[in-house]
């Protein structure tokens, strides 16, 4: 499933540069994750890099975009084909 940045985000600027899929950008008030580009770092790392660097742990699974590990791997393959 894609990830979601909650309203607890403090705009620390850590996550955008860590995202290998360039899925994180500034929204109206806080950073946001594009679910069409988020693979939870499947194909790149063992864990989501944005979650690893977030100092306040405000990045969580997005219940509106549930995807299996296989679906995330397929999305990665399609983006980098």
Automatic annotation (TrEMBL):
Cofactor(s) this protein cannot do without: [4Fe-4S] cluster
Protein known as: 4Fe-4S dicluster domain-containing protein
UniProt GO MF annotations: 4 iron, 4 sulfur cluster binding; metal ion binding
Gene3D superfamilies membership: 3.30.70.20
Natural source organism: Marisediminitalea aggregata
Residue ranges constituting the 4Fe-4S ferredoxin-type domain according to the UniProt record: 1-29, 31-64
Lineage: Bacteria, Pseudomonadati, Pseudomonadota, Gammaproteobacteria, Alteromonadales
Domain of life: Bacteria
Keyword list, A-Z: 4Fe-4S, Electron transport, Iron, Iron-sulfur, Metal-binding, Transport
InterPro entries per record: 4Fe4S_Fe-S-bd, YfhL-like
SUPFAM superfamilies, A to Z: 4Fe-4S ferredoxins
Keyword presence, ATP-binding: no
